[in-house]
Amino acid sequence: MAGVSGCMKYSMFVFNFLFWVCGSIILGVSIWIRVSKDAQQELEIDSSLFAGVDLLIAVGSIIMVLGFLGCCGAIKESRCMLLLFFIGLLLILILQITGGILGAVYRSQIETSLNKTLLVSVNSLQSSTEESKAFQEKFQKFERMNQCCGLLNGPADWGKNFNTHFGSDKICECDLNNQSTDLCTLFQGRYIYKKPCGDVIIKYLKDHLLIIMGIAFGLAVIEILGLGFSMSLYCQIQRK
Questions:
Q1: What is the pLDDT of residues 180-200, one digit of tens each?
Q2: d(CA 230, CA 144)
Q3: Which residues, other chains included, contact 162 with Cβ-Cβ below 8 Å and sequence gap of 6+?
Q4: E strands, the chain, where?
Q5: Which pTM does this prediction carry?
Q6: What angle do CA 70, 229, 219 make, to 5 degrees?
């Protein structure tokens, strides 16, 4: 009867230990951000981003569980744990592939949904509630940082709030040192940024899509290696 390869066994253990450590870091940092008011203020995270933090908590927990199953399954030579690890990793890989296919198929719907989200934000720019004012102040900082104005229709998105002052800064006002025709345009007697911020946001998402795809591809390769290691070790234990 063939024995279990020591190299395969300990490679599987090290692989899953690193997997478990990554999961622990993601889970720990996510919980810290979720419960710590200081962390939320420092990272400028408000309640609208809690769904993303909660998703990271779920992802960290799943990675930790899978890493634990892989480590224990390799060291204890437990076929049950290795099989659970294999099924869990396979499900994640299937979800990744499905998500990628759906993202490609429903790309136009995703863009429409993004435009609807931007439209809701336009309504916040035109509102006069206290909650909207807090959003408007943050958005004006975003405008200055990215040299843009409004979200979809430039200064018109601000409506009656266009001439509102936040501190010493005027909404959409172009930097005096950068009043070029490419960057600025004259509107209501003053120079403002020409480009809508919606274009900046969409460009940012498109520029980072390649990075996201690269990360997803890298994770898929690691997951396939994990599937191969676990099934190979499972078969060796079965033949032992």
A1: 667 888 888 888 888 888 888
A2: 52
A3: 155, 171, 172, 188
A4: 165-166, 169-170, 184-187, 190-193
A5: 0.63
A6: 80
Q: Which residue type does 110 have?
A: I
Query: Which pLDDT score is estimated for 87?
Result: 92
Give me 209's structure tokens. Answer: 């899509």
Q: Could you tell me the CA-to-CA distances from 73 to 10, 96, 231, 240 in Å, in that order?
A: 11, 24, 11, 15
Measured in residues, the chain has a length of 240
H/E segment holding residue 178:
none
**Amino acid at residue number 30:** S
Per-residue b/e over 27-52, b at no fewer than 16 CB within 10 Å? beebeebeeeeeebeeeeeeeeeeee
Task: Give the helix/strand (H/E) hosting 83.
Answer: helix 79-105
- DSSP letter (8 states) at residue 185: E
Write down the pLDDT at residue 178: 59
- What residues of the chain score a pLDDT lower than 70? 1-4, 39-50, 110, 167-168, 176-181, 240
Distance CA 60, CA 54 (A): 10
pLDDT of residue 167: 65
- Give the residue among 73, 65, 72, 110 at the shortest CA–CA distance from 91: 65
